[in-house]
């Protein structure tokens, strides 16, 4: 079936133009005026923006920590669809003791198959330090897994030697190595000191993970990547001005292949949220929320092109899960939902407030993450041949159309949103996945299994 999206303002990373979009068999066939309408279903997008479907390359739908959250691959991705994200690249959970990476990948594929509401891929995870595990990575790219995640903190972290060996190996295989960069020893010490002193309120979470613990770890992994012949490294969820400064310093010294992600929460929330006696635990995540100066520095980093993507680090819990940390923040599971809020919140805070152009917005939320994970231009683009993944959005710049974000209007299984009460401009009217309208006026029209596994290629982003 042909579909013609008429009279919309089509937004790509390079241009914003009022034109028509012709779709057939799940792909974009043509852009332009006077396109053939024979047998086509007409959709009027007058006064609306037509934007590429969002690509979120940092989610945790299923994870293995003490508190198991409420998400499944349908319950976690259906809200993504409702929020304008049509593709995710999910971070696999840590592997159980004795499980091989191949088995772990197969287990995640089985959980998502015939369940996901949007298209999906996976970052592999590296927690083993043996040479055999490094050698087995050779088969991943041909299977469509062209990125791998390493942690510098938590029980399954890699020490410097293991991380350096991994970076050398991913460089050999032309893979993207994503890194959670925090100084484990110092944060562990500071958390233990807080606990010993009875400092259990949520605000001590931020104080026990100061920005220097991020910046030091960022600096360290960048030096390791440089020694690994400028291995391609993706610094996940940068939260601080200090962390960004270390990246800036490495680039100024000529280091290449450094890519940077920040997340919605670090652009919109500050550490004052931890002082809320009722809801402070809801904001516990790693890295923690920072100061307004850090928020401002990250926005400037986006404007300057120093940060390539905005993701969510979506990790869903309920308030009951979070309540485990009442009186002892170290017992609170870290993470927060956010997969549904990202697109609308960043359009409102970025485009509507004049911080980002429409083209920059489309770049950060769709094109760049697709390029970094080998999905472009199948995903993240509105060009002939691309998958027909797009959003029709009413910009609603009239102040009278402003509305308030509320967890009660969201579609996920969590019972709260860390963005509760934000005033938003711009409403998503329709979401299309491979040419099918799966969301209309906030009503989900799709079904489990609409999402397909994405066979990913290499990082297409110039270093």
Secondary-structure map with pairings?
Blueprint: E1 2-11, E2 16-24, E3 27-32, E4 41-44, E5 49-52, E6 54-59, H1 78-82, E7 85-91, H2 101-112, E8 119-125, H3 131-136, E9 147-151, H4 160-173, E10 176-180, H5 184-196, H6 203-208, H7 211-227, E11 233-235, H8 241-252, E12 258-263, H9 264-268, H10 292-304, E13 309-311, H11 319-322, H12 342-352, H13 358-372, E14 390-394, E15 403-404, E16 423-424, E17 427-433, E18 436-440, E19 443-444
Parallel strand pairs: 1-4, 1-5, 6-7, 7-8, 8-9, 9-10, 10-11, 11-12, 12-13
Antiparallel strand pairs: 1-2, 2-3, 5-14, 14-17, 15-16, 17-18, 18-19
Helix pairs in contact: 4-7, 7-8
Q: What is the strand tally?
A: 19
Shape, per Cα inertia axes: globular
Mean pLDDT: 95
Structural class of the helices, strands and pairings? alpha/beta
What can you tell me about this protein's structure?
Helix content is 29%, strand content 21%. The radius of gyration is 21 Å and the shape is globular. The longest helix has 17 residues. By secondary structure, the chain is α/β, with parallel strands linked by helices. The mean pLDDT is 95. It starts with a strand and ends in a 19-residue tail after the last strand. It folds into two domains: 114 residues, Urease, subunit C, domain 1 (Roll); 319 residues, Alpha-Beta Barrel (TIM Barrel), CATH 3.20.20. Strand 6, helix 1 and strand 7 form a beta-alpha-beta unit. The chain is built from 13 helices and 19 strands. Helix 4 crosses helix 7.
